[in-house]
Amino acid sequence: MERMVRTRNDSPGDTGGAGGQQAPPGATANGAAAAVNRTAATVNRAMNTFSPADEEKRRGVRRMKLTATGLLLLVALVYVLAELAAHHGAGAWAGYVSAAAEAGMVGALADWFAVTALFRHPLGLPIPHTAIIPKKKDQLGVSLGEFVGENFLSEDVVRQRLRAVGIGSRLGAWLAVPEHADRVTAELSAALRGALTVLRDSDVQAVVGEAITRRAGAQEIAPGVGKMLERIVTDGGHRRAVDLVVTRAHDWLVLHADSVMDAVQGGAPGWTPRFVDKRVGERVYKELLRFVTEMRDMPAHPARGALDRFLADFAADLQSDTETRARVERLKTEVLGRGEVQDLIASAWTAVRSMIVSAAEDERSELRLRVRASLLSLGARMASDTKVQGKVDQWLEGAAVYVVTTYRREITSLITDTVASWDPEHTTKKIEANIGRDLQFIRINGTVVGSLAGLLIYTVSRMLGA
Fold first, then answer.
1. Is-contact 227 319, C-beta < 8 A?
2. In whole angstroms, what is the distance from residue 310 CA to residue 302 CA?
């Protein structure tokens, strides 16, 4: 009897557990309490209402109750008729039938009491240890939560189950199929577009601008610039820039000769004769043009050597001279603080966002093609390389273990709290609708087994008495 009660107590718990597992693990700890509450509310509504399927099950339970009760009435009628026949001298067979029917009634009544005691008080009498499910509902939820936590959310169980599944190899074989890679690529693109659509440009721009400014402001740039300049000078990389500058300067002087001479003449004192100013302007222009031409045509020009020494000294000062480094930092701060620079930094997000969205929407974009190729390559490696499979399995096992060990209490409390929030009377009817039909077979079996046992006992008694 107690074993049967414990078994039936586990059944409704399983039902509650199945409902409780609908909530995402760790939702409470991650600040998603609203999601947990919505899930619990959904489960509560499911337990506090009867669906058409539940109503059909209740009708099936009622039919089975009528069948079991009808069988009890049948054996009772057989018992009465057998007793009447025995009193009227019907013969020895009447005793056998009467004993079998009597034992059948006893078995039927005992099992009726046991089954009824699970859900309510038999005949409305407050008999101890009856109405077990409505009374022990909360305790059942606690026990179910502990059972799930100990047997399903333990580290060893999670690792064994995931290791037996072999997710790495299966996932690799699945990803290696081009159609599946296309599907994953499309889903990732849709998710990326959705995320970029949800994000507000102003918020992202502010974050990006602050991050770049803070990072640039926190790091001294002079030593890095000095090392880069030193390497450029050592490798002669600056000479192309010098060639470009002197060539453009020569061309500009050729095109703007009058402007240069006018500028020189305009700076002469007012008391000098104009023809002298003109000769001086022409002389300055010719010397300047000669100087630039020589620099352009002579790689070993002294001015080029002087420029090399200047850049080398400047690179060294950027790395070691305190005053130079401080000046560079002040210049950097001034540049970063300008509104134009901040606007440029902030507008970078708009350009990047537009580029990413366009690439995500275009099926033939380089981004999607590279993602698809990477997925196919990853799938092939995961399907064939045991080392990669092992790494993927270990990563998944570690992630799953972290979730179940970190959020085990949230998962089990969800089960416990959900079961505790159910209405006892309605929950009892709900559980009875789902398992009551099978329980009525206990009454039928009790009637049949009781009848056979009574017949056997009576037969043995008669044989021993004879």
1. yes
2. 12
Q: What is the mean pLDDT of residues 61-74?
A: 91
Which residue from 435, 440, 441 is spatially nearest to 15, judged by alpha carbons? 435
The pLDDT value recorded for residue 268 is: 64
- Residue type at 159? R
Mean pLDDT in residue range 134-159: 79
Joined tokens for residue 383: 């399907």
Token pair 């300067």 is found at 249
The per-residue DSSP string of 91-117 comes to -THHHHHHHHHHHHHHHHHHHHHHHHH
**Structure confidence by residue, pLDDT tens digits, 81-98:** 998 988 888 888 888 999
For residues 459 and 178, is the Cβ–Cβ distance under 8 A? no
Tell me the domain boundaries of the chain: 2-154+403-465, 219-334
Contacts of 392 (CB under 8 A, 6+ apart): 167, 168, 171, 172, 382
CA distance linking residue 462 with residue 210, whole number of Å: 100
* Rounded CA separation 257/433 (Å): 105
When pLDDT is cut at 50, 70 and 90, the band that residue 26 belongs to is: very low
Phi, psi of 72 (to 5 degrees): -60, -45
Q: How confident is the model at residue 197 (pLDDT cuts 50, 70, 90)?
A: confident
Q: Are 357 and 365 in contact (CB under 8 A)?
A: no
DSSP 313: H
- Summarize pLDDT for 295-343 with one digit per residue, the tens: 888 888 888 889 888 989 988 988 888 888 888 888 888 877 777 777 7
Query: Which residues are CB-neighbours of 209 under 8 A, at least 6 positions away?
Result: 342, 345, 346
The Cα 135–Cα 140 span in angstroms is: 9
By CB atoms closer than 10 A (0-12, 13-18, 19+), residue 138 is: middle
Positive or negative, the Cα torsion across 115, 120, 126, 129?
Answer: positive
Token pair, residue 261, equals: 């001479």
Cα(109)–Cα(426) distance, integer angstroms: 26
DSSP 3-state assignment of 154? Answer: coil
Measured CA to CA, the distance from residue 372 to residue 362 in angstroms comes to 13
Q: Decide if 65 contacts 440 (C-beta within 8 A).
A: yes
The enclosing H or E element of 120 equals none
